Here is the input.
Amino acid sequence: MCGIIGWININITQDKGFEFYRERLRHRGPDDYGVWKSTNKNVVLGHCRLSIIDLSKEGHQPKVMSHGRYIIVFNGEIYNYLEIRKKLERVGYFFKSSGDTEVVLASYIEWGERSLERFNGMFAFAIYDQGNNSQSPSLFIAR
Here is the structure.
């Protein structure tokens, strides 16, 4: 089982604290680990990976999509992700990985919060949307 962690509104003096807690999760995901930090370091997302579905490096998390706007940390399994993936491919999405994490993120980009209605599985995730010129940043968390 993977481990996910996130901090919001931290400052540089707390970076060591984040790493301490991420390391505490390391036993949950011994195959890989990663950290994503916003440029102002107000948002930090971390992931400890247990590789099950996508064993390639494309399964690395945190996963970033849409030119860096959306970032996800995900734990769990979406049993019907291949079905959802096909629907997303029909509307123009292209996937680099073979796992369900990228499908979850693309689903959120396409359908927003209503993407949850499509998932059959067990999961916990956090998606950070950095926003754009007309939209403020937001964080969506579900389990």
User: Anything to note?
Assistant: The longest helix spans residues 101-111. The first strand starts at residue 3 and ends at 8.
